[in-house]
């Protein structure tokens, strides 16, 4: 039987400082994604300067970052389920900002890869504690919308990062770009430590979390046995193959295949990717919360339908010879596809016990990033090198095409499977225990 959100989540209320806290967390998300994805527009210059292969670039943008980003998220999240979440976020933000600066000082492949590993370690402390805070700031029926606001830090960060990275590289060099973007994050970390308020755990759901955090093995087993959690995590991981694989390689694709300058490419992609995802992320949270009041299965149906509708457009993007038309065509699949973000994180927080919410977010990110971050950029780079003798400069486009199509439809399947159990799991966790 399908139950409404009003019935399940009326126990808690929005704390008076919730919106101010959400605003601060938005800027944390903004710096997180700006520092992380600006590297994409710098890759053509870095490839030339450090004499790297596509496989090496795939490693730096994929496995080198995401392996440690994902695995370190678990111990950091466990700490966040026990200790001050704002302190963890402040420390993590200052650390990854400093490591971004060190990326700009790298002199070879090894140094750059190591610096990216450390960026990943720092950024592992951003999302799980932030999602846990938001879950305590806002009750279930407002949570996807709140998370969508936090998540728009991604497109805004990408927009600013692509613009700043492209033009700083055009007029100076890629090293100046990384140093310039990384340093201000240390100042934001001070604001987080000073102004962000820590809410009572479980407030928004009308009850208090357990005083003791359960053992890690118990948490993993409990979450993995939950079919909704399992399929949402796998669906997110497969979609991340598409998202990371495409976004990290787009600047190189247009520079290499369409012979465009990095300044022009970064400007186009900044507004197309940033604008499309800004709309899509906000729409995803709003639509899921509205439709979820009628039927909780919409929290899974919205992401599934978004991927089914948006994925086929990539065939035109990577096959057309018209550079401008190719770029413009990106707007639709990214606007629709990223509607999965806010419902995904709302589901993860909703089906998890209050005492393990940060860990649940970290485990989902671990699964998603090991799949998507490990395979996405690396698969594109590997296929591009593999097909280079056959397709020459067009090999990267074919690699992007196949990765995006396979991953998009596969991810939609997992969200569809999650819709079968989501009503029961969300209703069960929304009730006090």
List keywords for this structure.
disordered N terminus; 433 residues; 79% helix; Growth Hormone, Chain: A; 24 helices
Q: Can you characterise this structure?
A:
The chain is mostly helical. The protein has a single domain (13-200, 215-430), classed as Up-down Bundle (Growth Hormone, Chain: A), CATH 1.20.1250. 79% of the residues lie in helices and 0% in strands. It contains 24 helices and no strands. The chain has helices spanning 5-8, 18-37, 39-50, 54-61, 63-80, 85-103, 109-123, 127-137, 140-151, 153-171, 174-182, 184-195, 216-225, 227-256, 262-292, 298-310, 313-319, 323-329, 331-337, 341-350, 357-386, 388-391, 395-418, 422-430. Helix 9 (140-151) packs antiparallel against helix 15, helix 10 (153-171) packs antiparallel against helix 11 and helix 14 (227-256) packs parallel to helix 21. The longest helix is centred in the middle third of the chain and has 31 residues, at 262-292. It is globular, with a radius of gyration of 20 Å.
């Amino acid at each position: 039987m399908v139950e409404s959100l009003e019935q399940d989540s009326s126990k808690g209320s929005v704390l008076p400082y919730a919106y101010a806290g959400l605003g601060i967390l938005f800027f944390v998300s903004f710096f997180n994604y700006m520092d992380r994805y600006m590297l994409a527009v710098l890759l053509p210059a870095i490839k030339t300067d450090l004499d790297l292969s596509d496989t090496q670039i795939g490693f730096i943008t994929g496995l080198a970052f995401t392996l440690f980003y994902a695995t370190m998220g678990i111990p950091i999240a466990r700490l966040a389920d026990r200790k001050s979440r704002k302190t963890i976020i402040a420390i993590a933000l200052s650390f990854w900002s400093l490591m971004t600066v060190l990326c700009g000082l790298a002199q070879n492949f090894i140094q750059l890869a190591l610096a990216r590993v450390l960026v990943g370690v720092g950024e592992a402390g951003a999302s799980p504690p932030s999602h846990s805070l938001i879950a305590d700031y806002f009750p279930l029926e407002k949570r996807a919308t709140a998370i969508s606001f936090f998540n728009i830090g991604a497109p805004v960060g990408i927009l600013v990062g692509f613009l700043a990275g492209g033009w700083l590289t055009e007029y100076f060099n890629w090293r100046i770009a990384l140093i310039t973007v990384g340093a201000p994050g240390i100042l934001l970390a001070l604001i987080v430590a000073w102004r962000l308020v820590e809410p009572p755990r479980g407030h928004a759901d009308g009850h208090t979390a357990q005083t003791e955090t359960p053992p890690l093995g118990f948490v993993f087993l409990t979450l993995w046995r939950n079919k909704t959690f399992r399929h949402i995590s796998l669906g997110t991981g497969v979609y991340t193959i598409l998202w990371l694989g495409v976004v990290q390689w787009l600047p190189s694709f247009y520079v290499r295949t369409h012979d465009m300058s990095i300044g022009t490419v970064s400007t186009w992609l900044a507004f197309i990717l940033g604008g499309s995802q800004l709309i899509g992320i906000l729409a995803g949270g709003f639509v899921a919360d509205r439709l979820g009041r009628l039927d909780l299965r919409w929290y899974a149906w919205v992401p599934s339908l978004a991927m089914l509708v948006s994925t086929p457009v990539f065939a035109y993007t990577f096959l057309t010879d018209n550079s401008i038309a190719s770029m413009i065509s990106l707007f639709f699949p990214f606007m629709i596809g990223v509607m999965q973000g806010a419902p995904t994180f709302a589901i993860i927080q909703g089906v998890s016990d209050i005492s393990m919410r940060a860990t649940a977010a970290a485990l989902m990110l671990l699964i998603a990033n090991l799949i998507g971050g490990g395979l996405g950029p690396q698969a594109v780079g590997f296929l591009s090198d593999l097909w280079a003798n056959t397709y020459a400069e067009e090999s990267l486009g074919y690699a992007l095409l196949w990765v995006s199509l396979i991953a998009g439809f596969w991810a939609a399947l997992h969200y569809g499977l999650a819709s079968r159990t989501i009503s029961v799991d969300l209703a069960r966790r929304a009730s006090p225990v």
